[in-house]
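Lecture 7 notes: from sequence to structure.
We start with the chain below.
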Amino acid sequence: SDEFLDTERFRGIDYGALVLRRNYGAFMARGLGLSIAVIVLLFTSYFGYGFVKQLLEGDDNAPVARPRQITSITELAPPPPLDPQTPPPTPVAAAAPPDVGKVEQVKDEEAPKTQTLATQEVMKSAAGATGDSGAVGTGAVYVPPPPSEPVEFAGDPPDFVAVEKEPAFVNRVQPEYPDIARKAGMESRVTIMVLIDKDGKPLKTKVLKGEEVFHESAVKAAMNSSYTPGVQNGQPIKVWMTIPYKFSLK
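Predicted structure tokens for the same chain:
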């Protein structure tokens, strides 16, 4: 082989396949050594990392000191011994009784008579029998005062007055649909207020809202209806009543 490799000297060249073939052994040894060094370095780094990590974190299997949990009263430690040098606590003095003065005895005839209060049943029976207040034993029978008179207004009452019973319809007249509104396809909701007298007669009206074309029909229906008057303190009273009317082609 030497004679074969020496042919490059005769050819006068120092490159190409002849040079590579001469240095093949050196290149192979160098590559094999480098590969072995890299593999050894990887294994050393892997095992060295685990060893260093274990040193830094400590041994997980090492016993850890934990506080003892007491599950029974028998496991409690005995109480500390009493110190004979420590004096006992000073007892709290009892409060002095209040001074009520000198107790004097009186004769039976000087003592006030025993009073008995009337029960609810006795008071009710006495009130039903007499109709007014009277004495039952030593307790007074309470009779409620008569209801106050209803409030009278010089003119028209306010729009809203507190009453016990609102006015109501006896006979409610339905309004007629205006022809001009029907032909125009108009619909509306009209709300009016009617002043009801103490005898249940409608006195006057006023329109709150709604299309003007429906006002006359709604007022006419309200005035032609009959009502029961409002009641305040058990007496009829003149009061306003709010009535809604719905005009719909459906």
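Points to note: The mean pLDDT is 78. DSSP finds seven helices and nine strands in the chain.
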